[in-house]
Amino acid sequence: MGRLAGMTESSTSWETSERAFRVNPYVRLQFEHPGHLLPHPNRADLDARRASAPGAGLRVELGSGSGNFLTELARQHPEEHVLGFELRYKRLVKSARKMEGVGLTRAWVLRDQAERFPKYFDPGTIDALYLHFPDPWPRPSQWKKRLVHAEFLRDVERMLRPGGHFQIKTDHSGYFLHILGLCTGISGLAIRFYSNDLQRKAPPAASPPSEFELLFRLRGKPVFCLILEKTA
Predict the structure, then answer these.
(1) Active-site residues: which are they?
(2) How many CB atoms lie within 10 A of CB 54?
(3) pTM > 0.90: yes or no
């Protein structure tokens, strides 16, 4: 995924200026992939797309970047619905193109903020939630901008089905320790796996690597991983 950088509400405004169309061609190109890209997402549209397989599993990536992880995840689980949340136009278009290129029929990307994901689903219906390399906002004065905080984890717990899991990966040790500390206050989430370096200790059922994970592997930089499970 790309770094999730504390976007403001105006970042998802549906008003697109003529200048934006000229400066960024992907503002226009996002509308050329209606089968896989929802530039103006809403709950009713998403429900209609999922209606053909109402009992299918549901996997969601927050901050899906250019779609490498999301597309491979959908390839591995073709019977399930796979969705990604992303804000940047170019990444959305690249994701949709990848999905089209491999013929996926139950995978989509939505242009919206990651923290708004609960409004698109019923509570207790997400099988797996993924958050890879969110912006760590390393300076103490920036910590309030971090995506993962206690209320966010409560949303995660509420939206996962019993037995569902939430996977987090980051290259920032301070953020990783911060998230671990927050987990102790969420009674419905249990730590099922954690690693201080995925190259040395990987989960039993490893998921596809994300774009940032591959980059950090090449640099020899450790990747921290945490998997939480909803217990009830």
Answers:
(1) 135
(2) 8
(3) no
